[in-house]
Amino acid sequence: MSPPTWDEYLAEASAHLAAVRATSERGAPPPNPPARPEGPPPEERLEQVRSLAMGYDQLALELLTRMQAMDQRRPVSQAKNPHQELLPARYINTPI
User: Fold this and answer.
1) Model pTM?
2) How far is 15 from 21, CA to CA, in rounded Å?
């Protein structure tokens, strides 16, 4: 299978970005990314490539911000004192 052209890649990558955004909002795993063409992008496609890269960067920033907000709302576990004596284990309310 031959690598895609830059036009095909940009169209597939734009659709992929939209799909990743939609799946991340549902909490589902992202779809596989499209195959990248060989070599550097042509001069006439550089602006589209930069725009697409900024779209992925923006999505990554949004996801990171959401994850940090969720992490701040998680309950904080009590840190255990390493010098505190542990009680013996109990199974069915019977000391071992």
Assistant:
1) 0.70
2) 10
Rg (CA), the chain: 24
Block residue for tokens 């036009």:
7
Q: What is the pLDDT along the chain (96 residues), one digit of tens a residue?
A: 788 899 999 999 999 999 999 998 888 899 999 999 999 999 999 999 999 999 999 999 999 998 888 888 877 665 666 677 767 766 666 655
What's the CA angle centered on 89, arms 83 and 90, to 5 degrees? 145
Q: 80 in helix, strand or coil?
A: coil
Return the sign of the alpha-carbon dihedral for residues 91, 94, 95, 96. Answer: negative
Closest to 4 in 3D by CA, of 42, 43, 26, 34: 34
E strands, the chain, are 90-91, 94-95
Distance CA 22, CA 38 (A): 28
